[in-house]
Specification:
The protein has 181 residues and is α/β, with parallel strands linked by helices. The chain has six helices and seven strands. The chain has a five-stranded parallel beta sheet, sandwiched between helices. It has a two-stranded antiparallel ribbon with strand order 1-7.
């Protein structure tokens, strides 16, 4: 596994390369400090992969880009802890899995954004791990850790073999974040 120090423009360039080649991994793990652009980068990637312009960067004008911008896209699933909860529950992951079992309705790829992946309870982690090991076609997951992690910490609490198959994107400062591929 090669480690590349990264900043926001470099992370976006890597996401553009992935989008342009259409070699979409089944999961992207966005790590970094709060405010480093993890969620922004995940949404930008979702738009680029499904943009009608079929370029590496999203046009932000086509129907797909506009729907993603307004959280109205039927193929964009966002999973976050319920307002009354601090964790992502297994019931939320099971509901997401049920919704992703079919082909996309409008988009080239169905997208799942788990904004607080680091806040999943162990049962939810295990259910997601199974989904990541055997993903449906035309689906990718964007995972945000939800907590501050540095190189000394495991950014996502799943077994190492599963993590090694996830593309890690860190749009933060070079001294604190890295992109693994």
């Amino acid at each position: 596994m090669t480690v590349h120090p990264n900043d926001f423009p470099t992370a976006l360039s890597e996401l553009d390369r992935i989008s342009e080649t259409r070699k979409i991994p089944n999961a992207l793990l966005f790590t970094g400090l709060p405010g480093s652009g993890k969620k922004q980068a995940a949404y930008r990637f979702a738009k680029a992969v499904n943009c009608a312009g079929k370029r590496a960067q999203p046009c932000n004008q086509c129907r797909s880009c506009r729907k993603i911008n307004t959280n109205q896209h039927p193929d964009m699933i966002v999973v976050a802890p319920a307002k009354s909860q601090k964790t992502v529950l297994i019931s939320q992951i099971r509901e997401m899995i049920a919704r992703t079992g079919t082909r996309p309705h409008e988009a080239s790829y169905r997208m799942v954004l788990i904004t607080e992946a680091g806040q999943m309870n162990p049962q939810a982690q295990n259910a997601l791990l199974k989904e990541l090991e055997e993903p449906p076609e035309k689906l990718f997951h964007s995972l945000g850790p939800g907590t501050v992690r540095t190189a000394a910490h495991n950014p996502f609490p799943v077994p190492v073999p599963a993590v090694s198959s996830i593309v890690r994107i860190s749009p933060g400062r070079p001294s604190e974040c890295a992109l693994f591929d």
